[in-house]
Fold these 2 entries.
Entry 1:
Amino acid sequence: MTDPDADVGDPADADSVVEAVFDAVAATAPEIRAALPGRRVESGTENASGESVMAGDLYADELLGDALTAVDGVGSFVSEERETAVDAGGAVGEGAYAVAIDPLDGSSNLRSNNAMGTVIGVYDAPLPATGRDLVAAGYVLYGPITTMVVADEDGVHEEVIEEDDGGVSRSVVEDDLRLPEDPLVYGFGGRVPDWPDEFTAYAREIEDELKLRYGGAMVGDVNQVLTYGGVFAYPALVDAPDGKLRLSFEANPIAYIVERAGGAATDGEIDILDVEPEGVHDRVPLYVGNEGPVERLKAALD
Ligand SMILES: O=P(O)(O)OC[C@H]1O[C@](O)(COP(=O)(O)O)[C@@H](O)[C@@H]1O
Ligand SMILES: [Mg+2]
Ligand SMILES: [Mg+2]
């Protein structure tokens, strides 16, 4: 529950809520990872986006829901897997924060045992809100190593999360994560025949310049771009002009992180962080990475 004496709008208070949120996320990460082997099957339900939910999605959502609604200063919990927000006590925007999560990003990779993630956005306005209302964002990457990237107004850092004597340790391995200046890799989602012609033409140019890295989990693919430089896109498709990814749970937090690391993020026209949502489950095309390729993309789609 929110501390009733909390100083409304005090930035120090935002810092401590953000810290507690990422403590809670780090504490659940080994548990989520350990639970995945038995949860590689469909749960038999569909989520608010009309997508089939895996057993692992549900488990991660429940665990993170319990952990995050218990954090002092979290007033609202919103998840890709839930139709509506959970009231966690406290007025969002008046000392309390809204936490939005994609509990398991790339969960179709469960069956094939490839990388997946968890995405977190901490907003100081009730959702739906724009990405300008984010005060912090981050993601966990369940790769061969469990890592967590966290961005706030001070910058971006990367940690390794490990189980440690019955507890969980967080070790910072990169304290000022910046996109490398020279882009090296690209990863574009969706079927090529479904891409609009302008995007296909842009992709043909990029293919000549960069190396393909596409794993089918946004977190894993964006992490490659943050590490090596480059561009990731889940573009507008001919029959799905809003693409696939969700603004509140996926595009906004990723845009916030990449922009804090020196990069750019657009929906093809404007900065992702300026996109005005109508609902919390809205989708948006996402083009993100080094400024050079993202600006070229905007020009190509113009
Ligand atoms: O299978 P596709 O069409 O390449 O889509 C992959 C994209 O869909 C996603 O898996 C959607 O996320 P969820 O798994 O959270 O629904 C992204 O991680 C990824 O970028
Ligand atoms: Mg996702
Ligand atoms: Mg998901």
Entry 2:
Amino acid sequence: MPLFINRDQIFAHQVHLLEHKLRSKEERILELETENAILHLRLADCLVKLRHDHEEETKAMNHHHQHQRQAQNETRAGLTKLLSGVQEVKQDLSEVFGVYVSFAAELEEQSKQLLEKVEQASSSMKGHSGDEVQDLQARVAALERSLEEEKERCRTERQRRQELHNTVVELRGNIRVHCRVRPVLSFDHVQSSTSGSGPASSEEVVYAISDDTVMVNCLKPGMPVQNKMFEFERVHGPEDSQDTVFEEVKPLITSLLDGYNVCIMAYGQTGSGKTHTMMGSHSSDVSSTVEQEAQQGVIPQAAAELFRLISEKPAGSHTVEVSVMEVYNNDVYDLLAKDGQGNQRRDVITTSSGTSQVPSLTHEPVGSASEVMQIISSILKLRAHCPTLVHTESSRSHLIVTLTISSKSPNALALARRLQSAKKDMQRSPQKEWWSPRCRRADLTARYPSDELLASSASSPCPSPCLSPCPSPRPSISQAPFRTKLQLVDLAGSECVGMSGVTGAALWEVSCINRSLSALSDVLGALAEQRPHIPYRNSKLTHLLQDAIGGDAKLLVMLCVSPTQRYVTESLQSLGLGTRARQVQKELPRRKSNTLKVK
Ligand SMILES: Nc1ncnc2c1ncn2[C@@H]1O[C@H](COP(=O)(O)OP(=O)(O)OP(=O)(O)O)[C@@H](O)[C@H]1O
């Protein structure tokens, strides 16, 4: 065997090795390419599947939305049908009631005539037999009995009618939102030209397109027009008169005498028509008395309706007191206080039963609607006003007119409501023994003024607080006068500081107004979302109106909006607040559990 290896042999061996390596690499590349092709195929497969799944999911979502929309439409249609059914029943009942009333009157007349005849006959038939007279007397007695029966049926029908009325109001919810779009007025044009923002700013963009829908054309330069729709319980257009607006508010005044607290609140941007809606037009806007009457707003018309309803009740059974407050720069002022400007400021407190109260607030007794209006008109001069670029007679404060009605003989519905709210108060403060005099006193103080309470405690003295049921007689729920209140609120206008053109102290006023209105919006938001804490105390306005907004009072928010492009941002903000308020109603159908059954 040679000791050295031939170089050619070494090369040949290396070439052989390299060729072998190359072959195995090529095989590996082939293998990887095959794997790659398989993976591509799998990927394509997955993509097809994914697209298919996505399509399925979209289809399912569309189907779900369609189903949901259909269910919503069906519910809405059902509710409308139900409401119209209730309206029809109400109509039928009122017809039946009319027939009963005339029948009872006829029967009464007939029995009177018969009685007269009997008397005549008995005097002329002294000689006739006693049997005939007895027979006639029996017939008269039978007629009198049937008359009594008819009267009783009449009473029952009247009560049922009242119940139905409240059911209709309740079906519409405890918080109702109405919207009023005012007409384009001369100052809309003047302001647009002076502000230099071009003629487009006076263009009409907010429309009442039906009885319950408002449409806003949102115009943005270079963008197609976008229409936004808002639905409310009732929408009034520029052509709707003050009477038409009040017609929709009127049922709430009936509820007031049935034991409900009622609050009617006008909300909107400055110059949008809140004072016009609540009070009526400023005296300089209308010339004749007839015209002035036709222009009367919700407050004078509500007062007139209230006194009309009271006049149908037994004389002296109801008394009315008025109080007027103003929330200015987050302070509450009693505008009826006789102790001069300096001492009119008042506090708002929360009582042990969770209601808000203004201690030492002045209440003036009133006997007619004109008396109410005289008082309000005389003190309205004290209300803070300030001309702004938007509105020359702009109100800088929130005005709250309260009519408190005391009834000595409340009807059955009102009594049932009183029992309910007493029960609720007890549930609200479970830690207290409800029969404890301390607790009763606190609760009663919250509900009734001190003079009334003194009278009731004087009639039922209890020497010392005790923790066991008190055997001494106490005023029953039906004995103390029954009180309900009607709060009529004309809010100050929300506004954009830049647009109002105010400075200095007026700027502070605008900031206080805007803060209190955003506190109101926060409260509505918290209620709509059913948050555990409702921030009533963030502003005096919400603290003062706590019972009306979150309690079981019937609240009507009257949104006032300007129709022009210039105020479209503010109008959209107001419409948004109205939508929020409606969500409170949707989320909390509070009356369902409280439905009254008075038979
Ligand atoms: N529906 C309407 N029809 C006719 N005129 C109206 C209507 N609404 C408002 N106006 C007029 O527009 C002007 C401004 O209205 P109003 O004083 O009620 O505004 P406002 O919302 O109370 O403003 P502010 O919050 O600044 O006090 C008034 O001259 C009023 O007469």
